[in-house]
């Protein structure tokens, strides 16, 4: 296959994607250059912030890769108070971050659902209804998604983790809490309710092949997502998947693949929002900046109160767990300036794809 021809095509098939995922050297440089061009043309050279609030690490699920899975008894469980969440949101607002993202383990009790509903009201009041709000609170009923949407949450991130059913089954316990079809149904429900819908996968998982990753890209295109957050799998010693660590690609190779996935996604889904995942930085100190250069346009600075950061360890070597939110901000600003992009301070930076999709439906 000739790279220049491939990169000028409007659509890429599985075979072509597999080829591009494997490219190196000069070919890889061409891939990255093309992705940067597509980004500049379709979403502009602007990076938007989503201040990340890791509200609680309490989770009812037991995903085999995740450090805060319910079965891990080595975790100190915490739950921020409403005031702590509101303070973090105010920090984001005062520093003109534009948006926040609230993430937790999965809980779906009535108490939790009510709490989020009230909290959304409180956050909006405290920040003059100016912040864009993303939720990443796992699988919930359509009714719950609707209640939160009606309180002003506008985006929802629910990664499929692996779009291949068999691979998904290897990464999760086999019970009703970890049902592939249920996760797909949740993504459809989010779409029906009216959210900007985000999903994503982990890259470099045990048992995962380049074919799986090519299919992940095609699947995201097929379900027509508005935003994507995907990043390298980083093994955690207190998880069942850790036993396969010897079979994993070297961490630098997982990192490399994550950059190629980001670049390819930008090329095939030109106007979506793509997050530069924090997990990249766990591997390479300049990881997020590299992702921005090859197509990512969203960064999620961690604004969780410092005291809790160490307890939200999904994977090993999570960066910035010792920093206070302010340090993070200054360091990120400098880092993004180095990429040549500008920061969309005070802007929501919503998915352009979402608006295009909605306008098409109205027409
Ligand atoms: N409980 C919610 C959100 C919190 S988990 C949910 O599962 O949707 C957020 C993301 O962390 C998950 O979607 C998963 O992709 C990622 N994650 C978990 N363990 C990881 C690991 N070991 N390496 C890389 N990413 C991981
Ligand atoms: Fe819970 Fe999410 Fe971790 Fe799964 S990935 S164990 S749902 S926090």
Structural notes for this entry:
It is a single chain. The protein is 46% helix and 12% strand. It contains 15 helices and twelve strands. α5 links the parallel β3 and β4. α4 runs parallel beside α5 and α6 runs parallel beside α8. The longest helix has 18 residues. It is globular. The protein starts with a helix and ends with a helix. The mean pLDDT is 94. S-adenosyl-L-homocysteine binds next to loops.
In terms of DSSP E residues, the strand content is 5-15%
Alpha-carbon distance between the termini? 39 Å
Q: What is the residue-averaged pLDDT?
A: 94
Provide the list of bound ligands, each named once: S-adenosyl-L-homocysteine, iron/sulfur cluster
Sheet with the most strands: spatial strand order = 2-3-4-5-6-8-10-11-1-12
Q: Name the helicity range.
A: 40-55%
Rg, rounded, reads 19 Å
- Secondary structure tally, helices: 15
Number of strands: 12
Q: Describe the global form.
A: globular
Largest pleated sheet: 10 strands, parallel
Order of helices and strands: HHHEEHEHEHEHHEEHEEHEHHEHHEH
């Amino acid at each position: 296959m000739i790279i220049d021809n491939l990169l000028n095509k409007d659509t890429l098939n599985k075979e072509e994607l597999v080829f591009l995922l494997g490219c190196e050297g000069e070919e890889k440089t061409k891939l990255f250059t093309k992705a940067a061009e597509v980004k500049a043309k379709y979403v502009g050279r602007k990076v938007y912030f989503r201040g990340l609030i890791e509200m609680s690490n309490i989770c009812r699920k037991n995903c085999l890769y995740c450090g805060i899975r319910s079965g891990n008894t080595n975790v100190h469980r915490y739950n921020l108070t409403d005031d702590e969440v509101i303070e973090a949101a105010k920090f984001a607002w005062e520093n003109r971050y534009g948006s926040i993202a609230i993430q937790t383990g999965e809980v779906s009790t009535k108490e939790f659902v009510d709490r989020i509903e009230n909290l959304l009201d409180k956050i909006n009041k405290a920040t003059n209804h100016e912040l864009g709000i993303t939720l990443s609170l796992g699988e919930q009923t359509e009714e719950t998604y609707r209640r939160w949407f009606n309180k002003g949450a506008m985006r929802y991130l629910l990664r499929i983790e692996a779009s291949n059913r068999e691979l998904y089954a290897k990464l999760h316990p086999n019970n009703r809490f970890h049902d592939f079809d249920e996760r797909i149904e949740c993504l459809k429900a989010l779409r029906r309710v009216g959210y900007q819908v985000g999903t994503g996968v982990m890259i470099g998982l045990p048992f995962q092949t380049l074919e799986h990753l090519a299919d992940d890209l095609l699947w995201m295109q097929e379900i027509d997502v508005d935003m994507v957050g995907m990043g390298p799998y980083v093994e955690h010693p207190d998880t069942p998947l850790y036993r396969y660590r010897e079979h994993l690609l070297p961490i630098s190779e997982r990192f490399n693949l994550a950059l190629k996935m980001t670049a390819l996604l930008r090329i095939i889904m030109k106007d979506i929002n793509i997050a530069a995942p924090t997990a990249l930085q766990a591997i390479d100190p300049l990881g997020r900046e590299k992702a921005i250069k090859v197509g990512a346009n969203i960064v999620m600075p961690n604004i969780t109160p410092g005291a809790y950061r160490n307890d939200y360890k999904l994977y090993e070597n999570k960066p910035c767990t010792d920093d206070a939110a302010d340090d993070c901000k200054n360091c990120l600003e400098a880092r993004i300036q180095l990429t040549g992009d500008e920061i969309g301070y005070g802007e929501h930076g919503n998915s352009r794809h979402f608006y295009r999709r909605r306008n098409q439906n109205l027409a």
